[in-house]
Specification:
alpha/beta; 9-stranded mixed beta sheet; Inosine-uridine Nucleoside N-ribohydrolase, Chain A; two-stranded antiparallel ribbon
């Protein structure tokens, strides 16, 4: 595959164990050109998520791709973090040295705008945390909208994990999510209906451990911590690698079964704030505005994950 065939993406993230795996997958795939990484407050404060992104770049050997720090607060509401799931650092578990790589001075929103305006309309945005940076960029410079090939979002679902109705990424900044979902750009949504199917069980972790390189060992450390918190908080028998699903879609969309549906974001409900209201039966009569991922080919998904992580150099 030539470099011209690779899909250009920018990952907007809040690392985060599954964010880290998403980055590692993108770096190792010959089908992806990673244009940049932008960070946002979400799983932890933005200084911590930026540090985590830099640490992941270090272990992946990623030196030339810029990391830009973004929004530290939601558009309207007070910040919430997910320390119960990801630990105080946002990526507890593995012990990693301080990175030598540093973030660029440019704010993530300005980085997104500059890269999109200079592009041929071939950049896919992959936001796997709260949508604050993406919404701010859309509001600050609407000329980027026709330049966005697609926005592949990890967030939402027909049920919640932060409240009974709302998934964490959408809940943390539902006002930003509303801006993005009403922007008119092509959207593919990976909500909990799909990502809970991507469960890294002990059997899956054994397959990844068998790869035997530094990165696969790091992924197993991430998964072991993540699986333990998911077991304690939700009673799961594995770690759902939510964010990696978005990158996997950019690598091979045929891994997923999707439907064009209407998705509206609830910003006013007392009990339903942050809900992605998915019109599964078409009862609203509104035009679909999102390609919603609902089914995962688990066997092919994990085979692709293992094959891609094999691209990292063997330990010496």
């Amino acid at each position: 595959m030539g470099t011209d065939d690779r899909r250009k993406i920018i990952i907007d993230c809040d690392p985060g164990h599954d964010d880290a795996i998403a980055i590692l997958l993108a770096v190792a795939s010959p089908k992806i050109e990673l244009v940049g990484i932008t960070t946002v407050a979400g799983n932890a404060e933005v200084d911590k998520t930026t540090m985590n992104a830099l640490k992941v770049c270090e272990i992946a050997g990623l030196r030339d791709v810029p990391v830009a720090k973004g929004a530290g607060q939601p558009l309207v509401r007070r910040r919430e973090t997910a320390s119960d799931i990801h630990g105080d650092t946002g990526m507890d578990g593995p012990e990693l040295p301080a990175p030598t790589k540093t973030a660029v001075s440019e704010h993530a929103v300005d980085f997104l705008i500059r890269e999109l305006l200079a592009s041929d309309g071939d950049i896919t945005l992959v936001p796997v945390g709260p949508l604050t940076n993406i919404a701010m960029a859309m509001r600050k410079e609407p000329a980027i909208l026709p330049k966005i090939r697609e926005v592949v979002i990890m967030g939402g679902g027909t049920f919640g994990n932060w409240t009974p109705a709302a998934e964490f990424n959408i809940y943390v900044d539902a006002e930003a999510a509303k801006i993005v979902f009403e922007s008119g750009v092509p959207i593919t949504m990976f909500g909990l209906d799909l990502t809970h199917q991507a469960l890294a069980t002990e059997e899956v972790q054994a397959r990844i451990k068998g790869i035997g390189n530094r990165v696969s060992d790091f992924v197993v450390e991430l998964l072991q911590f993540f699986m333990q918190t998911y077991k304690e908080v939700f009673g799961f028998d594995g770690a759902p690698i939510h964010d990696a699903c978005c990158v996997a879609y950019c690598i091979d969309p045929t891994l997923f079964g999707c439907r064009k549906l209407r998705v509206d974001i609830e910003t006013k409900g007392e009990f339903s704030y942050g809900m992605t209201v998915v019109d599964m039966l078409g009862v609203t009569g509104k035009e679909p505005n999102a390609n919603v991922a609902l089914q995962l080919d688990r066997d092919r998904f994990w085979t692709m994950m293992v094959d891609t992580l094999n691209n990292y150099a063997k330990k010496v």
